[in-house]
Amino acid sequence: MSAAVQCVSVLGATGSIGTSTLDVIARHPDRYRLHALTAHTSREALLALCQRHRPAVAVLADEADAAWLRERLAAAGLDTQARAGEAALVEVAEASEVDVVMAAIVGAAGLLPTLAAVRAGKRVLLANKEALVMSGALFMDAVATHGATLLPIDSEHNAIYQCLPAEHRGGLARHGVTQLLLTASGGPFLGWTPAQLAEVTPAQACAHPNWSMGRKISVDSATLMNKGLELIEACWLFDARPEQVQVVVHPQSVIHSMAAYSDGSVIAQLGNPDMRTPIAYGLAWPQRIDAGVEPLDLFQVARLDFQAPDEMAFPCLRLAREAMAAGGTAPAVLNAANEVAVDAFLAGRLPFTAVAELVARVRDARPVLPADELATILDEDRQARQTAQAILVRMLEETI
Ligand code: NAD
Ligand code: MG
């Protein structure tokens, strides 16, 4: 393999996607080298990654943590530079020596560095779906304007990407695609009644049957808000209308999603539920490389089941579809309210079933503004969080 070595920055390197990315990269030292690894506060974990992967730069949120890291790196004889803060995150996303940026920060915190990578025309591997949900048209316009290569890492979107023609811009209909079938595992509470759901604990919500993931996306998977965010993500990535995306519950998580065509064909992408497959696809596209993933054993899978999602028990999916239909800042508000609600649930302050209620109440309290300016989106994100905190306090008082 004589392709030039690609230089990669991994944003959110200590997380579930970040560590899977480093696992794939470490299998191909001839193809990839690391520019930067970043983390929020996990300085010990970042130090360990620096020792193992020797990036040029390491970024943490706070200067005190960066100073701690700097000292340890020097003591270990490593020449990795430790930096701090959002400006440093943006810098490692847009640095001229970087070819590929893995956007794997969780939540709205990833928007600015991910957008910086897009605006610098990088190959952007998008795991951080919240960034695209918040900024939709603005994000996709920036991809086109700056000639960035956007490759979806979310397993469903990566699957759809693989099931569509190589050049699928310009609307699905032009390519004979009638529907995108977005599969959902159904999460750990598939089939549960609202009464059972009311008693769910954070530990139960974070124990996903098929995927091992960060805590926020685990809760989103359990409420089906993850599928709602993914529906919005699919609309932007593939230029689809919400009604062209059908959610199909498929508990085995072997089919990662499908595209249906006007001649009756349905093309699916299958594989073991292991994020290293879409990560390796994004890193090597249009080539294929070893991801360290076990081959799929269909005899062991034996059967594939499908059912419709239960939007009565899991209203977050409907809330997301409505936010996409409302347009403008509505998806950014949905995302911000959901981040506050998930934090409150994980902290034991909010019942599981109240997550959707809080999101709906914030939606009702906020206007829908045009989302063509980044400043408007960031401001609405901040305001929606404040509104969510105020409504949360009221909801907690109501239940006392
Ligand atoms: P995680 O919680 O395991 O890791 C998050 C990473 O982001 C960590 O490195 C953390 O240090 C960093 N981070 C958190 N808050 C930050 C902040 N405020 N500023 C800077 N850095 C911050 O999360 P994850 O499961 O790896 O998910 C990452 C993203 O990928 C999410 O958007 C998620 O929806 C998406 N995703 C994850 C999976 C999965 O299997 N884990 C699958 C599909 C999509
Ligand atoms: Mg997914």
UniProtKB/TrEMBL annotation:
**E.C. code:** 1.1.1.267
So where does 1-deoxy-D-xylulose 5-phosphate get bound? 129, 155-156, 185, 208, 221, 226-227, 230
Does the UniProt entry include the keyword Nucleotidyltransferase? no
Please name the GO terms that the record assigns under molecular function: 1-deoxy-D-xylulose-5-phosphate reductoisomerase activity; isomerase activity; manganese ion binding; NADPH binding
Q: Can you supply a Gene Ontology BP term from the record?
A: isopentenyl diphosphate biosynthetic process, methylerythritol 4-phosphate pathway involved in terpenoid biosynthetic process
The UniProt record lists the 1-deoxy-D-xylulose 5-phosphate reductoisomerase C-terminal domain at: 150-238
Give every DXP reductoisomerase C-terminal domain span. Answer: 270-386
> What cofactor requirement does the entry state?
Mg(2+); Mn(2+)
Q: In which pathway does it act?
A: Isoprenoid biosynthesis; isopentenyl diphosphate biosynthesis via DXP pathway; isopentenyl diphosphate from 1-deoxy-D-xylulose 5-phosphate: step 1/6
Q: Which Gene3D superfamilies match?
A: 1.10.1740.10, NAD(P)-binding Rossmann-like Domain (3.40.50.720)
Q: Which residues bind Mn(2+)?
A: 154, 156, 230
Per its UniProt record, what InterPro entries does this chain match? DXP_reductoisomerase (IPR003821), DXP_reductoisomerase_C (IPR013644), DXP_reductoisomerase_N (IPR013512), DXPR_C (IPR026877), DXPR_C_sf (IPR036169), NAD(P)-bd_dom_sf (IPR036291)
Q: State where NADPH binds.
A: 14-17, 128, 130, 214
Catalysed reaction(s) here are:
2-C-methyl-D-erythritol 4-phosphate + NADP(+) = 1-deoxy-D-xylulose 5-phosphate + NADPH + H(+)
Q: Where is the 1-deoxy-D-xylulose 5-phosphate reductoisomerase N-terminal domain?
A: 8-136
The superkingdom listed in its UniProt entry is Bacteria
Q: Which UniProt keywords apply?
A: Isomerase, Isoprene biosynthesis, Magnesium, Manganese, Metal-binding, NADP, Oxidoreductase
As for family, the record states: Belongs to the DXR family.
Any idea what job this protein has? Catalyzes the NADPH-dependent rearrangement and reduction of 1-deoxy-D-xylulose-5-phosphate (DXP) to 2-C-methyl-D-erythritol 4-phosphate (MEP).
Query: What NCBIfam families does this protein map onto?
Result: Dxr, PRK05447.1-1, PRK12464.1
**This protein's name:** 1-deoxy-D-xylulose 5-phosphate reductoisomerase
Gene name in the database record: dxr
